[in-house]
Design brief:
Shape: globular
Number of helices: 18
Structural class: mainly alpha
Mean pLDDT: 89
Helix content: over 70%
CATH superfamily: MFS general substrate transporter like domains
Low-confidence stretches: none
CATH architecture: Up-down Bundle
């Protein structure tokens, strides 16, 4: 593959993940406006938080299913085709959200958007890794992970310029359908992975049965990998993301752009964290870095909900720091999760762990929604309690061995 083609692959995959990030950041910033607009007189603060949890859980469940189904499709029909289809999935179904009439219709669409969100990651990462085999693995992992958070940052700046309100929110969903053009271009014009093309003529081994991952020699590693993957994902969506609807509620309609500014500060920190996570793990070692990230993420999340609040001086500084530290996990996972497994079961094992984390996130977010209702819509209380999820990493990391690299 020549230099131009490799550049096109890297650019398309980065953009695909950037718009993936737009979809991930969409509901945290728009959920209360959507709920108010669709529920009308039936809207309450508790109902708004409950629907935020439901929309988030639907997206995470869709991402878990899409990560498995569309990831497998990439092995069968090619990386670029599966990536193009993933982009079309999340773009078209997101745009359809601009015409929904009920919260239930939006809930179904968020699940369908999640299918594309989940499928983009494995196909984009595989395509780049196979087209840039000599590149630094930590650098590539960091840049691609940063693409997601750059998308969240982009969305926040758009929403600051054109605030999302209960009377004006449909446009943001229609706007999020624009990447469909990228999906078409990927399908018709992006070069395919040479490694995948070569593999079509090679006799393939039978796929690793999942039961092999739960055999006596691997069951502990598999379960530990699921746990260490689940903790940062559940923490991010069941704890951290409540800060944005909280900012929306506190700032109110008179300061509608404040929630977008809050998401923007978080996204800047998250983009840096995504780049630095793998490097930190390589410098400090797997266990020590994961342990310290767990301590930092839980402490900063609790501080964000208890020691400051929206509109107070310093709130956005804490949000930035929390975003940076909490997303160090994802650079860490992208680089080191596959190394927990022997080569023969590496792809299957790491894929199972990552997608199990997404399933756990859907359950965790729904649990946070129930807690939100039980506490009468108290955002700081919910965020503080759920921040304890990050602290579980202090114990969980000792379930796995330091890898031999």
């Amino acid at each position: 593959m020549n230099r131009t083609a490799r550049g096109a692959v890297l650019g398309a995959a980065f953009l695909g993940l950037l718009f993936d990030g737009v979809e991930l950041g969409l509901m945290p910033i728009a959920a209360l406006s959507v709920s108010k607009g669709l529920l009308g007189a039936g809207f309450t603060a508790t109902a708004g938080g409950d629907w935020f949890a439901r929309f988030t859980a639907a997206l995470m469940l869709g991402a878990a299913v899409g990560g498995v189904a569309l990831g497998n499709l990439g092995d069968r029909i090619g990386r670029t085709r599966a990536m193009g289809l993933s982009i079309l999935f999340y773009s078209i179904f997101a745009a359809m959200g601009g015409w929904v009439q009920t919260v239930e219709q939006m809930l179904v669409l968020r699940f369908l958007v999640g299918l594309g969100v989940g499928g983009m990651w494995p196909n984009g990462m595989a395509l780049v890794a196979e087209c840039w085999p000599g590149a630094s693995k930590p650098l590539v992992s960091g840049v691609m992970s940063a693409g997601l958070n750059t998308g969240i940052l982009l969305l926040s700046q758009v929403a600051r310029a054109w605030p999302i309100t209960p009377d004006s929110w449909r446009w943001i969903f229609q706007f999020s359908g624009a990447p469909a053009l990228l999906g078409v271009l990927v399908l018709v014009g992006l070069p395919e992975s040479p490694a995948w093309l070569k593999s079509r003529g090679v006799a393939k081994k039978k796929p690793t049965p999942l039961r092999d991952l739960f055999a006596p020699g691997l069951v502990r590693v598999t379960l530990a990998a699921i746990v260490i993957s689940s903790i940062p994902m559940v923490g991010a969506w069941a704890a951290s993301k409540w800060m944005i609807p909280w900012a929306d509620k506190v700032a109110g309609a008179s300061n509608a752009e404040y929630k977008a500014a809050t998401q923007g500060w978080w996204a800047i920190g998250a983009a840096l964290g995504s780049l630095l996570g793998a490097q930190l793990a390589g410098w400090m070692g797997r266990r020590r870095s994961y342990l310290l990230i767990s301590v930092g993420a839980s402490t900063l999340t609790m501080a964000m909900f208890q020691l400051t609040a929206p509109l107070r001086p310093g709130f956005h500084g804490v949000v930035f720091a929390q975003g940076l530290v909490a997303t160090l996990f994802f650079g860490w996972l992208a680089l080191y999760l596959p190394e927990l497994f022997p080569v023969a079961v590496r792809a299957t094992g790491s894929g199972l762990a990552y997608n199990s984390g997404r399933f756990a996130t859907a359950v965790g977010v729904m649990g946070a929604g129930v807690l939100f209702g039980a506490l009468g819509g108290d955002y700081p209380q919910v965020g503080t309690i759920c921040a304890g999820i990050y602290a579980l990493g202090i114990v969980a990391i000792w379930l796995v061995k330091e890898p031999e690299v």
